[in-house]
Target: BolA family transcriptional regulator
Amino acid sequence: MDCKVIEQMLTDALSLTEAHVTSDGSHYKVVAVGECFDGMSRVKQQQAIYAPLSEQIASGELHALTIKTFTPTQWKREKLFNM
Model:
């Protein structure tokens, strides 16, 4: 699956400020930045990312997914370490 398509799906579904998706074969890494994550537990943040991708995960189109989520404030501090 194309990384840009995943980025657009997540951005549209969650109104993200930024979405960065990289792929290494069948493994995808998602870095998502948005106000929607403010106050959410880590589990809820992961569920928020999985929800718009559920069809692709169920079909096997997306196999392995690593997720990192940040609010815009957190991203300002963490950007250098996560890109």
Notes: The beta strands are 18-24, 27-33, 64-70. The two ends are 21 Å apart (CA to CA). The longest strand covers residues 18-24. Residues 15 and 53 are 15 Å apart (CA to CA).
